[in-house]
Specification:
Helix content: 55-70%
Distance between the termini: 37 Å
CATH class of the largest domain: Mainly Alpha
Largest sheet: none
Strand content: under 5%
Number of domains: 3
Radius of gyration: 24 Å
Structural class: mainly alpha
Order of helices and strands: HHHHHHHHHHHHHHHHHHHHHHHHHHHHHH
CATH architecture of the largest domain: Alpha Horseshoe
Number of helices: 30
Number of strands: 0
């Protein structure tokens, strides 16, 4: 689970739009083919010369390459001033449906684009007018509408387009996405997936179909169903950084770590290649690195994880990237360092972590990890001091209505070090109750750095309290939500062994060894698992 503080910053980073129309970047758009971005059929009533660029712009939208999509549609509007749908494309590029909530400035600009499209409707078809009206419903200048109302209005309008033009696959794809962006509940996930699965069978090279199927299935209950789309998407759009990363959302959910690693290595490479070509989207690499470090730590590739951490540390300051007022490098460094210490159960290292910045935005991952490390290594006074500092940050965040979620998260998350403090005082039932309150909120499982699953912590605490059978149940529960986690597998094996269930313990040890196949890890847990299996 990622801290809302870091997650919101990361989301803002990766979704921010470059407004400048970079000629160098656009020139390279002409070199991007269907084999690199996927196949989209979206006929419009604009000039024949912009038909191919328009389809390319929509393909860029479908892979959430919003920076480049905006440039494409701006160029189309310049090349064909009568093209109403070019303004629809720009407006669509400004709203990053699954990533963020546009601020007042973006809403105003989006409304201007929607109005510009409306003014050219004499040149548009009835179908195109409905597309423009749909995005206009989102950007409406009504100040009474909050984001949720805007998203619902757009989804309802796209439903009308979908129903009015049953042969328009793009309407179906965009409507499915709108269901996920208006309210990503299980019912909407299943409804979106039902629409997209039909198209997946007939349009296997469509980037939006595979992409949005992954998002629809990106939850523990449905993740297994997303494996075919995950394996397909990276092949469809290998040049799009987000496209080659996105399959890892499914791979991480089901514990396919090597596939996760492969996806994110490809995403980082694609990001750097396209940036070198003059295209935007540098921030995509940090999200891919996040998944990559997490996967490395589950598979005994600690040295590779450390290399990523060292690489991020060596990067120059990036606080002005995309004009944002924060440094994504620092956010990544903090969460990667925290995870490295926590995943290896190196409590002394965790307790010794130094904040990467004095800015509270970057401190929370470090302080939470440090408090846990201190509590677990017997440094109770230090742990309490860190908890007090976290509490102070939460109090400051709560003064800003926009940071209420972050404050609530910190209030909840500080229960973890407090639970280990309680455990050190023999108050195990109280400690478990505190951890349970955190675990109940972690229903989405983990796939990124920063923290350990609270359910797994409950199991660790019970094992440390010499209650192995209860610990085993907790490990098993967590492994259903977070399959093939290194510590979950090893903990379950230890608990089973202590409970006199050697056969069951051996199964978990074997799963751990298989998960770390090909690694050069020197972790004592892995060595012990191999030794015990060799004696069978």
């Amino acid at each position: 689970m990622k801290s809302p503080v870091c997650l919101l910053l990361l989301i803002s980073l990766t979704s921010f739009t470059l407004f400048a129309d970079d000629e160098k970047g656009h020139q390279h758009h002409d070199d991007l083919t269907e084999t690199q971005l996927g196949t989209v059929h979206f006929p419009v009533s604009c000039a024949a010369s912009v038909q191919k660029p328009f389809a390319r712009g929509v393909a860029l939208l479908h892979s959430f390459w919003y920076e480049e999509a905006e440039k494409e549609f701006l160029e189309i509007a310049k090349d064909d001033p009568h093209c109403a749908m070019a303004h629809w494309g720009v407006a669509m590029s400004l709203w990053h449906q699954l990533w963020n909530q546009p601020d007042a400035k973006v809403l105003a600009r989006g409304w201007e684009e929607a109005r510009a499209g409306e003014k050219l409707e004499q040149n548009a078809t009835a179908r195109e007018k409905e597309y423009i009206a749909a995005i206009g419903a989102f950007y409406s200048d009504s100040k009474k509408l909050d984001h949720a109302a805007r998203a619902r209005a757009y989804s309802e309008a796209m439903k009308k387009v979908y129903e009015s033009y049953p042969d328009d696959n793009e309407a179906a794809v965009f409507y499915a996405l709108s269901l996920l962006s208006s309210d990503e509940n299980l019912e909407h996930r299943k409804e979106a997936a039902a629409i997209l699965e039909k198209l997946f069978a007939t349009e296997p090279d469509h980037p939006g179909v595979a992409h949005y199927l992954i998002h629809a299935y990106d939850t523990p209950e449905l993740a297994q169903l997303g494996i075919p789309a995950a394996r397909r998407y990276a092949q469809i759009a290998p040049m799009a950084p987000h496209a080659v990363h996105m399959p890892s959302h499914i791979f991480a959910r089901v514990g396919l770590w090597q596939d996760d690693i492969t996806s994110n290595l490809a995403s980082i490479a694609a990001t750097r290649k396209t940036v070198a070509m003059g295209m935007g989207g540098e921030g995509h690499q940090f999200h891919a690195m996040d998944f990559l470090v997490y996967a490395y730590l589950q598979t005994g590739h600690e040295a590779d994880a450390q290399k990523i951490i060292d690489e991020v540390k060596a990067m120059p300051p990036t606080h002005n990237m995309y004009g944002l007022g924060f440094d994504p490098r620092l956010s990544s460094e903090a969460s990667f360092e925290a995870s490295y210490a926590l995943e290896l159960h190196d409590w002394q290292r965790a307790a010794s972590l130094a904040p990467v910045s004095k800015d509270p935005e970057y401190e929370t991952d470090t302080l939470l990890a440090r408090a846990i490390g201190a509590a677990r290594s017997g440094q109770i006074a230090e742990a309490r001091k860190d908890v007090d500092e976290i509490r102070s940050i939460a109090k400051e965040f709560r003064k800003d209505k926009k940071k209420t979620d972050e404050a609530n998260f910190l209030d909840r998350q500080m229960n973890e070090p407090l639970a280990w403090i309680a455990h050190s005082e023999g108050k195990d039932d109280e400690a478990i109750k505190m951890l349970r309150a955190v675990a109940e909120k972690e229903t989405d499982g983990m796939s990124t750095t920063g923290y350990l699953p609270a359910q797994e912590m409950i199991a660790d605490l019970l094992l440390d309290a010499k209650r192995p059978q209860q610990a085993l149940v907790e490990y098993q529960t967590d492994l259903k939500l977070n399959p093939n986690r290194f510590n979950g597998l090893y903990g379950a094996a230890q608990a089973a062994e202590a409970a006199g269930k050697q056969s069951e313990a051996n199964e978990y040890y074997a799963m751990l060894v298989k998960s770390c196949d090909g690694s050069n890890s020197t972790r004592p847990e892995l060595s012990r698992a191999k030794e015990l299996l060799a004696k069978k």
